[in-house]
DNA sequence: TATGAATGAGTATTCATTCAT
DNA sequence: CATGAATGAATACTCATTCAT
């Protein structure tokens, strides 16, 4: 029952999950084409035919990882939107909180994030959906008087996604900064701007 | 010199340039692996051996396109940095101007942009360099008192690159907005923030 | 004994017979290579290892079906040869009767017929044996003065097998004509020929 | 320019033809599945990629051989039907002549015959077409008063094809008898029957 | 008797790359 | 300058077959 030297009759689900895990890492690190099925099964200490026992083909396992990312992220975003604004003293606190949640999620799923954000052909669609959600939120905040009425919420939402994407890869996945730090920085940047108002 | 029926004895440079042009389009549209050498030469109405007359291999032509993007972009940025601040009445005007220049450059080189920003393995290095330049500028502006002293210029520079990247692909290359519009939006967003200061 | 929900402890012979049945149908319909062991066991609602409990390998089950056909057919022919000629008023009646018997046998075993006549590598040997039997009969009839002395009985026997084979597949197995009709047609054709002797 | 040791730059058509030739032999001798692409190219002293230079895949070359057989045979039958009946003194002479022509054709194309008659999935369709042609001829002869009016021409045509098929494989391709002999035997058998009319 | 899980061995196919002309 | 013809090397995928239970 140990991980290594596991007997032939291991649970099929275990093998499947293992393949998914290894594949996620391989795809994230090497890209789709550079990742060979042989490498995936090797990483899982299984043989090639076993791979095809659980996945129709290489594309299928990749798509499953895409879906996994998409589904989890969406569930996450939906859930975090539930936080009633009342819980927070300030808008900034709420924005920061929500950003932190998302960034923490991405931080916890580095391989899937790389796949879903960079490698996937559906990355654009996924991001577009996120943008949509964010813009809805922005529109609401504008109407509520928290944000300026003259901003192009679509453009701001796109910008935010661009920022999240970039900082996730350069600051968070590299462990240079923690999600809460980055969340705070982003909220501050977008809410206040960088112009010096003193003096 | 005609497009079709170009005589056999056409200048080698012409063939070379043609190959680069076709390759840029193919790579940008289909990615590195999905782009076959056979497709490139077909698009240029040449044979496969001819391809190897001008490029060592597939990787080489891709790298040349990467370099092309990198070189041109750097030259561009360097040049646009030359604009003395005095020429502008306000910081915002200068920031807007510089952004517009960059965005216009990307807009004019859509295929190379896709290659240099998305596809290239060196994309990270290229972006890092851009970030560096931007951060230098930011640091200068901070010292000059134009920007807040408490911002993390590295983080802001990364954010700006993330924004540029995303808006270029979603708004500019799709022709939804013109460079100057986006430049203005970005400058406003980053300088002022979105918080509603009225009321 | 029910079709579905057959208890686990079903008789092994039942499973074996079921596998043979399904295999016969599959082989007949799709050929040897196109028939997968996985398809056979699926058709029998059994697992792959169970297949190997009853048959050494895929080839073995195919060979068993070949033998089945061969054995049954030979038994049949032998038995039908027992009919003493005296029982029939005319040669034609006897020939027709014998043909009908064979055709009826093939008609009743469509899958085995397809296997034994078309698919089997031993088909040639089987047919050769049938030819042999028929030629013996023909030789006897020639000596008895019923048939022309100048015919090449070997060639006629081969022709008859060719006719049987073809008409079985095109007229009988397709249910276009019944064995007795075809038997009669063949007997008439071979005994009388098609030349118009009137006028 | 010799057959062996032929330089790399041989005519493409030559290589293609060679592949077809080798493939025909291999398919005829070993069947579709047992014939490996590797064996075909080996027989042609070429490499595997070269195979795909001329044929989309293994199926494609097989289909081309099927077509070749079909086309040639049809052309042959059509042409031989042109022989005006007047050229022959007797019906039997004409029938014999036509049979000989067909058998000679099959004799000359043993590999294609095996492919087109046995291996091809389209064999049935091809034979059906031949049957059709023969039945047309028979109908004509019946109307002309040469053949009995009470025969089922469809059944006789099928029988003739069955005979041709079988005798081709057992007597002609094995070189036991020559086409003209077999043609004569078949004509005699079908026209006169085997019943002894003497005595 | 029966099977979930796994695999060895094989095969078609693709693609970048190179001769010889 | 240009190419028709050819290939080395690699990879995804399939299928009959077998453990261990």
TrEMBL record, chains A, B, C, D:
Residues 36-55 bind DNA. Keywords: DNA-binding. It comes from the Bacteria. PROSITE patterns: HTH_TETR_2 (PS50977). Pfam families: TetR_N (PF00440). Residues 13-73 form the HTH tetR-type domain. Signal peptide: none annotated. This is Helix-turn-helix domain-containing protein. The lineage of its organism: Bacteria, Bacillati, Bacillota, Bacilli, Bacillales.
């Amino acid at each position: 029952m140990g991980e290594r030297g596991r007997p032939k009759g291991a649970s099929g689900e275990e093998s499947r999950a293992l393949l998914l895990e290894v594949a996620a890492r391989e795809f994230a690190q090497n890209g789709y084409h550079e990742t060979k099925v042989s490498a995936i099964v090797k990483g899982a200490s299984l043989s090639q035919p076993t791979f095809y026992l659980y996945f129709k083909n290489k594309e299928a396992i990749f798509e499953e990882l895409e879906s996994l990312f998409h589904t989890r992220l969406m569930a996450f975003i939906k859930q975090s939107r539930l936080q009633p604004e009342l819980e927070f003293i300030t808008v900034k606190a709420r924005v920061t909180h929500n950003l932190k949640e998302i960034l923490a999620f991405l931080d916890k799923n580095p391989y899937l994030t790389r796949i879903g954000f960079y490698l996937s052909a559906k990355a654009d669609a996924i991001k577009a959906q996120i943008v949509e959600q964010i813009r809805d939120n922005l529109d609401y905040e504008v109407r509520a008087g928290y944000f300026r009425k003259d901003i192009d919420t679509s453009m701001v939402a796109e910008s935010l996604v661009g920022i999240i994407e970039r900082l996730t890869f350069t600051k968070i996945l590299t462990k240079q900064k923690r999600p809460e730090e980055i969340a705070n920085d982003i909220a501050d940047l977008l809410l206040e701007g960088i112009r010096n108002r003193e003096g």
